[in-house]
TrEMBL record:
This is Uncharacterized protein. InterPro entries: Quinoprotein_ADH-like_sf (IPR011047), WD40/YVTN_repeat-like_dom_sf (IPR015943). It comes from the Bacteria.
């Protein structure tokens, strides 16, 4: 069962209470320059309610809301309403990088993510943000899944075609197109 991920404004009463009782979180919150951009992120075990991780992050001022969260090890991927994904360290709350698009698939074993950007474009990144595979599809993406420990990408497009792509081991970027 997947974890639950919660996001609270650091200025909310619930977050303020948690910050007061946790010096590490309070220190992270104090470092936030724009308090309205601060979020307390909590990752909770869905089965027993145990808190797995807590961190305070600062979202960009242009932040339009969350399209989704993904957690892979120590990394938190926050897909936003403005077609980008922000990657944070769950240990420090530091923003590590930004990726174009929203996360549509993630593989825990390999720490790879697949993002969907623009109408027919998808990209696979490793845990360092290095681009492993870039695809231009002939129809809009409807579903993506990383398989076999992140070595294979399976996609379904709007025209009901299923395609499989081998993901290189990270030594070079593969660019592919199935546009006919």
């Amino acid at each position: 069962m997947p974890d639950l991920i919660f996001s609270d404004l650091i200025q909310s009463p619930a977050a303020k209470e948690k910050l007061r009782s946790n010096p590490i979180l309070k220190e992270q919150a104090d470092a936030i320059k724009q308090k309205t951009a601060g979020r307390l992120i909590e990752i909770v075990n869905a089965e027993d309610g145990a808190v797995r991780a807590q961190v305070v992050v600062e979202v960009p001022l242009t932040y339009e809301g969350v399209d989704g969260f993904s957690r892979l090890g120590d990394l938190l991927y926050l897909s936003t309403g403005d077609n980008r994904t922000i990657v944070y360290s769950l240990k420090t709350g530091v923003q590590l990088r930004q990726l174009y698009g929203s996360v549509v698939a993630a593989d825990t074993a390999s720490q790879t993510v697949c993002t969907h950007n623009r109408r027919n474009e998808t990209t696979v990144f490793d845990q360092t943000g290095a681009e492993l595979l870039h695809l231009t599809l002939d129809s809009p993406l409807r579903f993506a899944e990383l398989r076999n420990h992140g070595t294979q990408l399976l996609v379904l497009t709007a025209d009901q075609r299923v395609s499989s792509y081998t993901i290189p081991n990270g030594t070079h970027v593969t660019t592919a197109s199935n546009v006919q």
